[in-house]
User: Fold these one by one.
Assistant:
Number 1:
Amino acid sequence: LRAQPTATGCRRTGHSPVTLVFLEDKAAQSLLNKMIHTSLVNTTNQVEVLQRDPNSPLYSVKTFEELRLKDKLLKGVYDMGFNRPSKIQENALPMMLAEPPQNLIAQSQSGTGKTAAFVLAMLSHVDPTNKWAQCLCIAPTYELALQTGKVIEQMGKFYPEVKLAYAIRGNKLDRGAKLQEQIVIGTPGTVLDWCSKLKIINPKKISVFVLDEADVMIATQGHQDQSIRIQRMLPKECQMLLFSATFEDSVWKFAERVVPDPNIIKLKREEETLDTIKQYYVLCSDKEEKFTALCNIYGAITIAQAMIFCHTRRTAGWLAAELTKEGHVVALLSGEMTVEQRATIIERFREGKEKVLVTTNVCSRGIDVEQVSVVINFDLPMDKDGNADNETYLHRIGRTGRFGKRGLAVNMIDSKHSMNILNQIEEHFNKKINKLDTDDLDEIE
Ligand code: ADP
């Protein structure tokens, strides 16, 4: 359990405990996604483009050469192993590199190439002979800023004249000290201080402004206001770019305040479906029986890789230990781990070093491991009110139409309540979940 801040503590920071918890999860999730996406995610969906001026021709590129990048940058791009622009980059890059500069709001799921796109745009716009801040990028957390900074350093590897500064907590500069670096990446609070109170950056000289992870950013009121205050200090002709993985109404409203006259690019995420999944449930009386049933399933069918979901860290820890005693090579993903530790575990599992991954609900969001053929809900996903969490169920079990292989999902039921959740899930997806007799497992092989 996460410690709840006291009532006075909340009043002092101005956040409700709910906001704090939510933000931490969203930011941590986003960071984890960045760390585990070592290549582009697959997508067959078409990019939707809305141009500010519908009469101007729509350019898209199929190669990086067409962008007429500086050689040093093209070299950096190829050195990162990129062969051609990703789906979203095909449209976003020509827009971002156009003259005169165009504003852009872009939305696509994590891992589709947004960061690489705006990093390339920033690097292209910089004039390295000018020793002042020209491109400003804000990210929701310290860790996310560092992660993006790494991409800037990597892509700019052959362009050493361009320098990068981190406007993050702990990086103390004196009032009035003038920044020589052309690109600044930071968090809203520190960036705001550097632009206003400390006058380390002259906002009037910024020509590209990037707001990354808008959906994570607005999860706290403070960041939203700070971002808007930063944006207000920038010159009118500054290029404004905003990126987000999701696009709820609140994100959209925020985006429109930060980016005037935008072009808009959206890439729908691949729909998940339960169509190629065989779903079953097993009746048990307690967690020991659930464990026995799990062992029976393992004994009866060949499982390449499985993910097992538990409700609490305690159950997850217990189950991982029991499975290990049975001789399984088990990885455990748990809430008290740092994002780095989690990323390492997911990477190892992806490489097949472990065959079973036991995880709690919170840790598992957003993780796609395509080769996993069996998913066990040791506990069914439910929301904080104890109702079925259909979205999480779909995300755990579901496969994206074209890339998904067939799969097997087994739900462990040990109470009236969990049976109830199962029924809600059946009803929601209008799909029957069959009972499985774990003493006779011929039918699932
Ligand atoms: P996002 O910001 O949308 O999460 P990233 O820009 O971080 O996506 O890209 C996800 C992963 O794909 C990263 O590992 C990145 O290096 C890689 N990548 C980005 N663009 C390309 C490309 N054009 N070709 C190959 N890999 C790419």
Number 2:
Amino acid sequence: SDELKIAVGAMEIADKIVEQVMTKIDDVFMLPDETILNAKMIAEIVRIGYTRIPVYSESDRNNVTGLLFVKDLALLDPDDNFSVRTVCGYHQHPVKYVFNDTPLAVVLESFKKGDGHLAMVKKVHISETVEDPSYELVGLVTLEDIVEEILQAEIVDE
Ligand code: ADP
């Protein structure tokens, strides 16, 4: 039954981690913060269709500094030629981060508490020569990715 499938799916996420359901970084639609929001660019962003877009600084996709919500564009005058940086600075939507090996149940809990429902996924790199660990952005995860995992789980009959 569908109910059983959902129950099994909910149990299965207990064994899964973020990197198994995230959207990989190469497939994430992001914008550099210097992007000018003219009419053409706004039309392009709306066409692409994501609700939220990570924004990066200094031409470094590893350096996500904000989130642009497509609804932030609704009241914008394209002739003002505002930059993404300016619009992000005005709204200040916080960027959440989770580690790639965080269990899905833990991410689901934090999505339930906050209002974000989207997190950037980072991976830690420990090197023997450099003292501080470095971080690499490896993807993006939303509530949708976890819900999908719950609904799609197959019951394996053994
Ligand atoms: P949206 O409301 O933009 O459709 P959802 O939270 O419903 O976003 O997620 C739908 C799918 O799109 C998920 O797999 C999620 O990881 C992915 N996704 C969300 N935002 C982006 C983005 N900016 N670039 C690429 N994939 C994204």
